[in-house]
Amino acid sequence: MDVALLSLLVFISLGSVGQNFLFLIAIILIRAGAHRLLNARQQFGPEKEYGRSVITLNLFLKDTFTQGVLLLLVALPLTYFSMISLTSFGHEGWALVAALWIGFTFLHTRFYPTVIAPLFNQFSPLDDNQLQVEISQRAEKAGCHLQALQIMDGSKRSANGNARVEGLGGAKRVVLLDTLFDILEKSEIIAVIAHELGHIKQHHIAKYELLLALIRFTWVFTIGYFVLTGVAPAIALSILWLVSSLYMFFLTPWISALIRGYEHQADAFVVSNGDGKALLSALAKLNVQNLATLRSDPVYRFFFHSHPDYQEREAHILGTTPHATS
Ligand SMILES: [Zn+2]
Predict the structure, then answer these.
(1) What's the pLDDT score for residue 117?
(2) Which residues contact 197 (CB under 8 A, 6 or more apart)?
(3) Which of 7, 96, 208, 236 has its CA 20 to 30 A from that of 314?
(4) Quick count: other Cβ atoms within 10 Å of Cβ 229?
(5) Which residues are placed with Cβ below 5 angstroms of ligand 1, an ion?
(6) d(Cα 17, Cα 149) in Å, to the nearest integer?
(7) How far apart are the CA of 199 and the centre of ligand 1, in A?
(8) What's residue 221's pLDDT?
(9) pLDDT of 55-96, one tens digit each?
């Protein structure tokens, strides 16, 4: 570990609880700041150059401010209660730290659509009644309850098209970016929504959240209990957070493989409902709109791609389509 950081950790460990707390918050803010700078470089660099990012400096700064306030609202109580847990309950306090972290993550996923997302984007219902009726019938026929479908003004930040499912339980909804309507036909929009319904039908969000909870618990509790035993709380929490990226790096390929599997399952759901052809045509258009590669480097894909590339999805969709001719 860097000598300067180690000296600082030793110095801080000799300080008061207040100093330790401020030190932890400083680490969190420095990490978030560095991440945001890299993000700015990406959005105002290559993505702007290739016409993907359309964000203005004003909006970027506004987003940064809102994200900073949200981070402090979360980090201050989480850090405080983590330190109190470790100080009051010793080694067993690590179970409480892990529970706090996991509890917060579930709350974030549950309330993201209603509390956080509206701070950044505007959401509106689909204004095409006929399309809405067709989608509802499709969902009903597939035995899938579509609680809400919302259109998001993604075009104020990016020209890329996308769709997703977000939220848990009663707050679950399908979100379509408005940029999709620039390039997709009605039948292709239905196929994209059917893909998201496939995720809902197979409870992918809940399964993914449970897996992450297990990973986080293992990470926080076992490392805290067995490795950071006897280390001052502020230092132990700092070490845990500083090396968490490294831990996640080694898990990334396995998590990516799991999500790629989810994508194939959602595509198979679309095929089983008769929209495979429209999905393929939508994916081809999205590939062009988002400047994605048809087939990426296998090692890079193994590590980082959470979505299969176009050719891989095409092979799976054609493989599961009855009487496929190409
Ligand atoms: Zn998907």
Answers:
(1) 96
(2) 138, 139, 142, 144, 146, 174, 269
(3) 208
(4) 11
(5) 263, 266
(6) 47
(7) 7
(8) 87
(9) 999 999 999 999 999 999 999 999 889 988 888 888 888 999
- What pLDDT does residue 263 have? 96
Task: Kindly give the distance from the C-alpha atom of residue 243 to the centroid of ligand 1, in angstroms, as a whole number.
Answer: 30
Q: pLDDT for 3-58, tens place per residue?
A: 455 555 555 555 667 777 888 888 888 989 999 999 999 999 999 999 999 999 99
SS (H, E, C) the chain: CCHHHHHHHHHHHCCCHHHHHHHHHHHHHHHHHHHHHHHHHHHHCHHHHCCCECCCHHHHHHHHHHHHHHHHHHHHHHHHHHHHHHHHHHHHHHHHHHHHHHHHHHHHHHHHHHHHHHHHCCEEECCCHHHHHHHHHHHHHCCCCCCCEEEECHHHCECCCCEEEECCHHHCEEEEECCHHHHCCHHHHHHHHHHHHHHHHCCHHHHHHHHHHHHHHHHHHHHHHHHCCCCCHHHHHHHHHHHHHHHHHHHHHHHHHHHHHHHHHHHHHHHHCCCHHHHHHHHHHHHHHCCCCCCCCHHHHHHHCCCCCHHHHHHHHHHHCCCCCC
Q: What's the mean pLDDT in 122-133?
A: 91
Distance 83 CA to ligand 1 centre (A): 38
Distance 193 CA to ligand 1 centre (A): 10
Give the Cα-Cα-Cα angle 9, 14, 19 (nearest 5 degrees).
75
